[in-house]
Write a structure and sequence with these properties.
mainly beta; single chain; two-stranded antiparallel sheet; twelve-stranded antiparallel beta sheet; 0% helix
Length: 257
């Protein structure tokens, strides 16, 4: 995917030119192997490159000025999961996943009067690793009742090889359950305790629409969330209506100031 927008304008004092650019490249290879009729193994290798770039050029009273800011992330991912379906009601799953990521969340350039002496400022590169082991148990008794429990353990390392290397380990947990009380009505509830190691800063404070993705560090702790949900569902033929409420706590959110 690639997109670029260009526009310019001018007046008696000078001219201005803006360019906004986004791109994303994804490659994925998957291997499925059925060990027995009930046990299957799925292995994936993927690559993701995402970037955004915004440039602004202005000529004011004969002086040329240019500012460029870009954000880049590259990820290489390996994952494998084993699934066991002993019968039509139960499913057991275990897996591992490893991600190597390189970030350049906020490089910029400034130019002088000629536009030829561009100098990079504020460059920040970091290499990161995120390793995850997880397990999941699912039970489903037709459309009468269902239950799922998932546990995940993650180890995150930011700035590998740097003096200010940062590491964090978290255990995440999710659970959900539902039961049909009658043919047309049922109850359901969920609980999620999650951690996120990438932060997205939406729209830098320059009036630009550029988003930057930054990894967790000693100053920017992993984002954590806890959510509770409970509700009821109603079924009529092929239609389903849900009514419920949730409570959510978020910690370590970041934003521009």
């Amino acid at each position: 995917f690639y997109s670029m927008d260009d526009f310019g304008y001018g007046n008696a004092k000078g001219t201005a030119y803006d360019r906004m650019e986004w791109y994303n490249f994804i490659g994925n290879i998957r291997w499925d192997y059925r060990m027995t009729p009930d046990i299957s193994l799925q292995t994936t290798v993927s690559y993701n490159k995402y970037g955004s770039d915004q440039n602004q050029e202005k000529s004011i009273d004969g002086t040329y000025n240019r500012l460029g800011v870009c954000s880049l992330i590259e990820e290489s991912v390996f994952g494998s999961k084993l699934t066991w379906n002993p019968n039509s009601k139960w499913r057991f799953l275990i897996g591992v996943r490893g991600t190597l990521a390189a970030f350049d969340p906020g490089s910029s350039k400034i130019y002088g009067a000629t536009g030829s002496d561009g100098k990079k400022i504020g460059k920040y590169n970091t290499d990161n690793f995120l390793g995850t082991a997880y397990g999941e148990v699912t039970y489903r008794n037709g459309d009468r009742s269902h239950m799922k429990i998932a546990v995940k353990r993650s180890e995150f390392i930011s700035g590998m090889g740097a003096p200010d290397k940062y590491s964090a380990a978290n255990t995440e947990f999710s659970a959900s359950a539902g039961k049909r009380l009658a043919k047309w009505i049922g109850i359901e509830a969920t609980y999620d305790n999650l951690s996120q190691y990438y932060h997205t800063l939406e729209g830098i404070p320059l009036g630009w629409s550029l988003d930057m993705i930054v990894p967790s560090s000693e100053k920017i702790k992993p984002e954590k969330s806890v959510q509770y949900y409970a509700g009821m569902f109603f079924k009529y033929g092929n239609h389903r209506l849900s009514v419920g409420g949730y409570y959510k706590e978020l910690d370590n959110l970041i934003h521009f100031s």
